[in-house]
Write a structure and sequence with these properties.
Elements: H1 4-22, E1 33-41, E2 47-50, E3 62-71, E4 74-87, E5 92-101, E6 104-113, E7 126-133, E8 141-148, E9 152-160
Length: 161
């Protein structure tokens, strides 16, 4: 069973993608940047930890996570993500994921640190790059910033096209 650290990181990854997926891209001729805020939730069983040797969290371990996307108090989609442990000292993970929505999907990638890195990066928030999309979200780009507990996360998306 994954520790709270891994659960938090998994939620970060999943939520980052969810923010991007729920945003409607601006129409042609409008400001190319749009800020959108939403939440994601996880329940027990929504993540799977794959523990390689040595036992416990260490580089090479993986986890998968699924989160429900909520917007305006209603379920609006699902996020699926896969993360790889890279650094034991700062608990750094590299995560890739996809938000699945009725009108398309959005992909994201980035790294998160559960402990504060030199220079103050990590721990309190995570920022992921939006790498693309399908359907309504073709050409999506921008960043997704996550702040939260791991079970319920707030995301702020700066979506560009």
């Amino acid at each position: 069973m994954p520790s709270n650290t891994i659960r938090t990181l998994a939620a970060v990854a999943a939520a980052g993608l969810a923010v991007a997926a729920l945003s409607a891209l601006p129409a042609s001729g409008q400001d190319p940047t749009r800020i959108v805020t939403f939440t994601t939730t996880q329940k027990n069983g929504d993540e799977q930890f794959i523990d390689l040797r040595p036992k416990g969290e260490s580089p090479g371990d993986r986890f998968t996570v699924s989160s429900t996307i909520h917007m305006s108090g209603k379920k609006a989609g699902r996020v699926e993500a896969d993360c790889l442990a890279l650094d034991r000292s700062y608990e750094v993970f590299s995560c890739s994921g996809v938000a699945l929505l009725p009108d398309g999907s959005i992909t994201f990638h980035g790294a998160s640190a559960n402990k504060t890195l030199p220079g103050g990066v990590g721990a309190k928030k995570s920022i992921y790059a939006i790498t693309g999309g399908t359907g309504t979200y073709i050409g999506a780009g921008g960043t997704a910033t996550r702040v939260g507990s791991g079970k319920v996360d707030k995301f702020v998306l700066e979506l560009t096209r």
